[in-house]
From TrEMBL:
<dbReference type="GO" id="GO:0008650">
    <property type="term" value="F:rRNA (uridine-2'-O-)-methyltransferase activity"/>
</dbReference>
<keyword id="KW-0949">S-adenosyl-L-methionine</keyword>
<keyword id="KW-0489">Methyltransferase</keyword>
<dbReference type="InterPro" id="IPR002877">
    <property type="entry name" value="RNA_MeTrfase_FtsJ_dom"/>
</dbReference>
<keyword id="KW-0346">Stress response</keyword>
<dbReference type="Pfam" id="PF01728">
    <property type="entry name" value="FtsJ"/>
</dbReference>
<feature type="domain" description="Ribosomal RNA methyltransferase FtsJ">
    <location>
        <begin position="2"/>
        <end position="88"/>
    </location>
</feature>
<keyword id="KW-0698">rRNA processing</keyword>
<protein>
    <submittedName>
        <fullName>Heat shock protein FtsJ/RrmJ @ Ribosomal RNA large subunit methyltransferase E</fullName>
        <ecNumber>2.1.1.-</ecNumber>
    </submittedName>
</protein>
<dbReference type="InterPro" id="IPR029063">
    <property type="entry name" value="SAM-dependent_MTases_sf"/>
</dbReference>
<dbReference type="InterPro" id="IPR050082">
    <property type="entry name" value="RNA_methyltr_RlmE"/>
</dbReference>
<keyword id="KW-0808">Transferase</keyword>
Amino acid sequence: MDVVLSDMAPNMSGQLSVDIPKSMYLCELALDMAIKTLTPNGYFFIKVFQGDGFDTFVKSCRAAFVKVTIRKPKASRARSKEVYLLANTLK
């Protein structure tokens, strides 16, 4: 597989202490799938919410991929914790 794209998000309750861990769990599942299914030069593109577990998730991505880039879209609200992570080339 050349690309794994994940725009998954749990149903948000508005309570970050509940929503962020649920979101991070989905991110971890997507990363696991990407590692198992991507071709060596494949791309992993995922929506991630900043909060508890974000830094650990980014470290996991950097451990698995040669290049990892994080961007916040201009269209995203300033108060939104949503960012996108693009990783490519499995190590």
